[in-house]
Amino acid sequence: MKKLIIVLLLAISGTVNAQTQPKDSLSFDENNKYIYYRVEEQPTLTADTIYKRALHFLKTAYSKDKLKLKKQEDSKATLQGEGGFMVSKKALVSKHEDAKITYDLIIEVKDGKYRYWLTNFVVIPYERDRYANFVPVKGKKTPLEHGLRVLGQKDLDDYLEKVLVNSRGVGERLKNFILSVAPVAKKEPKIAPIVKKDW
């Protein structure tokens, strides 16, 4: 009887732990690269609508230095963007740029659903230059998969956490763009030129 109770308690605690863990996290893809992968259902939307809204997202959601459209394949309903975000490190009394992490974002659409993934994460370290500005270290780029041997465990854990938070933010913003109606581009009124001969 005691063994049965212990087994039941372990099963219940395992179920509770499984439910409290986040639904999304970083994984490895078939090429052993870190990937943040999600599939979202939107049963009321057509593939064309989702595609247009995702394209609008890549063109307008972020500034060009944070995320921009890299490739557009209308026939395959695939969009690819490239982006990056800064990682700060806290010093004694202030924060400074420690690195920039770049990534690729791929979006594929079908009727009623879309999927997206962020991958190819690369860490570009920053250093202080002679003018006390933090600038990227030239020629030094580390794929996140090789981060442990180059960066160390503490920095890698910090970067992985920042990548996950940023990936979730990009996914939420994409979802908001998919759910909202993309504004129609307004045509600027054409101004007739002034002819100075006729007066």
Class inferred from helices and paired strands: alpha+beta
Provide mean pLDDT, rounded. 82
Low-confidence stretches: 1-10, 13-22
The rough form would be described as flat
Number of domains: 1
| Oligomer description | single chain
> Helix content range of the residues, please?
25-40%
The termini sit apart by 107 Å
| SS element count, helices | 4
What is the helix/strand order?
HEEHEEEEEEHH
| Radius of gyration, whole Å | 23 Å
Number of distinct beta strands: 8
Largest sheet: 8 strands, antiparallel
CATH T-level fold name: Alpha-D-Glucose-1,6-Bisphosphate, Chain A, domain 4
The fraction of residues in strands falls at 25-35%
Q: What would you say the CATH architecture is?
A: 2-Layer Sandwich
The CATH class label is: Alpha Beta
What does this structure look like?
- The protein has four helices and eight strands, in the order H-E-E-H-E-E-E-E-E-E-H-H.
- The chain is of the alpha+beta class and 199 residues long.
- The protein has a single domain, classed as Alpha-D-Glucose-1,6-Bisphosphate, Chain A, domain 4, CATH 3.30.530.80.
- A hairpin with a 5-residue loop joins strand 6 and strand 7.
- Helix 2 packs across helix 4.
- The longest helix has 27 residues.
- It is flat.
- The N and C termini lie far apart (107 Å).
